[in-house]
Amino acid sequence: MVVEDQPLIRKRKGGEVIEEPTSSKKMKEVEEPSDRPIPGGVWDPAFNLGHKIAFNLDEPKKKVVEKIIEQQMDDTSLEFTSREAMATWHLAYASDRGVLRVELQKVQTQVKEAKAGLELKKARDQLVADLEQGKKEVFDQKSASTALRVERDALLLTTVEDKKLKEEMGEAIVLEHTRGFKKALRQVSHLFNISTEGVDFEPRKDVYRGCLVPLSEILEGALVGNLNEAEEEVVAETTVVGEVREEDPAVPSTNVDDVVHMQ
Question: Residue spans with biased composition (Basic and acidic residues) (predicted)?
């Protein structure tokens, strides 16, 4: 392989051109190295391609390159190096994009699961709150039911006591009526000298329309009028007797008491 040996020309900022000394030979032959193994591959120091690279530039391009000063070449070289690094990083990032996309999908799935778990937790908390409210209502209902049961038992006990008292009062009333009836019979027997022995009186019957009938067969209030009339007659007779006594003491008295005393 033949490489053209060109002189290195440097141009300073002041416009001064410095030309490096070159060999008198314009062309030289580079001997091909012998075939030998390179253990380190492309990273081995023996793997060097710098002496084999030739830039075949025409005259206009050479003039452009010759006019570039050293500072511009350094800046351009740094710019290209930065761009190369950026491109390399972009390629590396692009090569990892699939992995990142998979991780992103995993994260999105985890977010969805977290949201679903949060919704389930909210629903569970609501159910727990409803359960506690239901338990409280059941407890209140049980308390109210217990209070009503106690009140019912008290009312039943009061009813039983009232019924017992009513029965006792009924028996006492019947006994008192029987005693009064017997006392009235004794007074009638004493006042009118009438013997009531052997006569079977019925305390649960009364004379109604000229017949002795049970009290249950007599209409309610039917005997009230008769009793009022009898009371009025007794009052009238008492008044007349009183007047007679005041007017003429010699007239015999019709009063039962007076008759009895007279006898």
Answer: 22-35
